[in-house]
TrEMBL record:
Leading EC class: transferase
Annotated family: Belongs to the N(4)/N(6)-methyltransferase family.
A Pfam family matched in the record: N6_N4_Mtase
EC number: 2.1.1.-
InterPro entries the record matches: DNA_methylase_N4/N6, RM_Methyltransferase, SAM-dependent_MTases_sf
UniProt protein name: Methyltransferase
Signal peptide (from-to): none
GO molecular function: DNA binding; N-methyltransferase activity
The entry's keywords: Methyltransferase, Transferase
Keyword Methyltransferase: yes
GO biological process entries: methylation
DNA methylase N-4/N-6 domain residues: 24-250
Top-level division of the source organism's lineage: Bacteria
Length: 261
């Protein structure tokens, strides 16, 4: 099978063509269901039940193509209108092994509301296929600033300062709340996709769940962020995208990255 390529086609149909235990990690940012009301791909289901049934199908296929120690990351969003992700998480965690729930803190709010708190986060449901999952915790450490390191080294409780400094220089372990600013309108990273995720966020997911040459699969490639993140970190990848516009967008983005390298 040819890797490092974008497949144009329906996610569910194309997933069914892939072999078992094919990918180390699946990163999926699917339609959220009636959140982006101006986008046909987000409003194509007549009922919530139809959307949930479709999600169960593509997640089943994603878990089938996942390696036994692989992880599947699924993006979702909550709100008064778009709370369908609550029901989806409930269903999926009854059908598959729950691994984690990551909160993506977008750093700034969006969609101001008169009668409730301003939303500032999205969620990433993490499922695992087997009892054990590959997770490289050291790959997503958060560096301490120089002032914090200096303060810790003055703590008299630590006798072996050399060992303590080595530990501090590695940074602290990341929590399951990932604070990564969302892409603003003037961001140089934006390429025209209405729900484009930050490269920095996707790089963290790739880094913590894969090693060099592992395969990353994205069933809803969109603007190509997962493919770019995978290539930047020496991973192989495969992307599926139904929209001809986004297929072109992702291919152009990858081509531009090769030229810039």
């Amino acid at each position: 099978m040819k890797l490092n390529t974008v497949i144009k086609g329906d996610a569910l149909k194309q997933l069914k063509k892939l072999p078992d235990a094919f990918a180390q990690t699946v990163i999926a940012d699917p339609p959220y269901y009636n959140v982006l009301e101006d986008e046909a791909w987000d409003t194509q289901w007549k009922t919530p039940e139809a959307y949930l049934a479709w999600c169960e199908q593509w997640v089943d296929e994603s878990m089938r193509v996942l390696r036994d120690d692989g992880l599947c990351f699924i993006f979702g969003q909550l709100g008064k209108r778009e709370h369908i992700f609550l029901h989806l998480m409930s269903r999926l965690t009854q059908q598959h092994r729950f691994h984690d729930l990551i909160i993506w803190d977008r750093a700034v709010g969006y969609n101001e509301r008169r009668d409730s708190f301003t939303p500032q986060y999205e969620m990433i449901l993490v499922l695992r296929k087997g009892e054990e999952a590959k997770f490289i915790k050291d790959a997503v450490r958060i560096p301490y600033d120089a002032e914090t390191i200096h303060a810790y080294l003055r703590d008299p409780r630590y006798k072996d300062l050399k060992a303590r400094k080595k530990h501090l220089n590695k940074g602290k372990f990341a929590t399951n709340i990932l604070r990564v600013p969302s892409l603003k309108g003037l961001s140089k990273e934006k390429v025209g996709h209405p729900s484009q995720k930050p490269l920095r966020l996707i790089r963290k997911l790739v880094a913590c769940s894969t090693e060099v040459d592992d395969v990353v699969l994205d069933p809803f490639l969109g603007s190509g962020t997962t493919a770019v993140a995978a290539e930047m970190q020496g991973r192989r990848w495969l992307g599926i995208e139904a929209s001809p516009t986004y297929v072109k967008m992702s291919r152009q983005r990858l081509k531009a990255r090769v030229k810039a390298a």
